[in-house]
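Task: sequence design from structure.
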């Protein structure tokens, strides 16, 4: 591999420390239509490095996998999760009050998906526009009456939006920053589009929580970066933006919501932000040994899951899965799990039903199929919404079925 690829996408330093090598696997959202199951499946190396200068954890800059290839037609629809819709509604209510937004304000959501958050602002009569590169999902959002455009966000798109009158009082980017290979063009776009007194909020899974709870299945090709305050604050400063506050969130196994303003905003750094930075330092985000321990923990979880599934199968137990999330595909493929161990999975998303999971080739059925088949064990792949799934699928326990998860440890629920 050429040395040009082994440079940090944030600070351009040489990447010398590999954290994980999950082998070669297909893109996590490349679901296979059954009629194409015989075709060759393209796979790519999945490796994660830590930069020992700026401490951004990241996949390599692999030019063979372009954002256009990954995101222009996307299989994830955020509105299918009741938990996520509730999260969006709560955020909208809170930020409207905090920033005193009204019908004269302008909200822009970057990575708006199918409009789960746009709906909450529209219901409050606040002008909003969504920006997302996935044409299929943008079409769906517009059909629901939610103004959305299909573009990749960056400085060029920001200039276009600003010229069209969409300079923003609030820009929201939830679970999108990790998906961006060119961080500097992306952040420059926010600086361009934001009004002088405006606010940006980003939500992203916390690197600290990822390491603490062995959440290695959140690693996949479309997640180019794994984020911390330690790495992000200097990045924003390079674009004359400043992080002023942070909140901890339970979503996605532990996330951060940061509040960002122009560098000259007369808003001091919050006590919560100062405390969070100190906690990252104490945890060891600037210590290579922290990442070495994470790698060892990942190997332990993979071995324990395989042992548990093989033991269950040796006892004659029938195992199915619930969910077809990208993280589930990383888990299955990293562990080498196929239909010999897990017969199938089910998912509420009709776009995934009738398909095969990439790599593992587990067939995807409707959730109702579980009630017909009555497996002994249900492996929950989207463990971050396990409570919601167990509530929806409570009937599983009526025939003696058990729920199994493996993050942060392998255990029955």
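Answer:
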């Amino acid at each position: 591999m050429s040395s040009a690829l082994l440079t940090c996408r944030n600070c351009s330093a040489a990447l010398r420390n590999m954290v994980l090598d999950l082998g070669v696997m297909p893109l996590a959202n490349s679901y296979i239509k059954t009629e194409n199951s015989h075709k060759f499946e393209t796979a790519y190396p999945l490796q994660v490095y830590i930069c020992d200068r700026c401490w951004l954890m990241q996949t390599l800059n692999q030019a063979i996998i372009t954002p256009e290839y990954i995101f222009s037609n996307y299989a994830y629809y955020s509105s299918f999760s009741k938990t996520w819709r509730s999260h969006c509604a709560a955020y909208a209510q809170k930020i409207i009050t905090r920033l005193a937004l009204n019908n004269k304000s302008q909200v822009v959501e970057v990575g708006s998906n199918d409009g789960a958050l746009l709906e909450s602002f529209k219901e409050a009569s606040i002008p909003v526009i969504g920006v997302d590169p996935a044409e299929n999902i943008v079409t769906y959002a517009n059909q629901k009456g939610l103004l959305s455009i299909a573009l990749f966000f960056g400085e060029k798109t920001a200039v276009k939006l600003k010229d069209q009158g969409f300079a923003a009082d609030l820009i929201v980017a939830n679970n999108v920053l990790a998906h961006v290979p060119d961080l500097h063009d992306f952040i420059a776009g926010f600086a361009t589009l934001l009004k002088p007194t405006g606010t940006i909020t980003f939500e992203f899974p916390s690197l600290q929580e990822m390491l603490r709870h062995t959440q290695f299945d959140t690693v996949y090709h479309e997640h180019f970066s794994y984020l911390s305050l330690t790495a992000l604050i200097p990045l924003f400063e390079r674009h004359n933006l400043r992080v002023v506050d942070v909140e901890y969130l339970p979503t996605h196994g532990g996330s951060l919501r940061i509040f960002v303003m122009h560098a000259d905003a007369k808003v001091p750094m919050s006590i919560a932000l100062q405390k969070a930075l100190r906690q990252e330092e104490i945890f060891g985000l600037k210590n290579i040994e922290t990442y070495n321990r994470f790698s060892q923990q990942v190997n332990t979880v993979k071995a324990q899951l395989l042992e548990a599934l093989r033991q269950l199968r040796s006892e004659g137990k029938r195992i199915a899965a619930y969910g077809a999330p990208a993280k589930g595909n990383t888990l299955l493929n990293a562990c080498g799990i196929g239909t010999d161990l897990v017969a199938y999975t089910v998912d509420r998303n009709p776009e995934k039903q009738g398909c095969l999971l990439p790599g593992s080739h587990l067939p995807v059925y409707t959730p109702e199929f579980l009630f017909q088949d009555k497996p002994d064990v249900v492996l929950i792949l989207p463990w971050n919404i396990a409570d919601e799934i167990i509530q929806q699928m409570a009937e599983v326990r009526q025939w003696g079925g058990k729920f199994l998860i493996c993050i942060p440890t392998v255990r029955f629920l």
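The mean pLDDT is 93.
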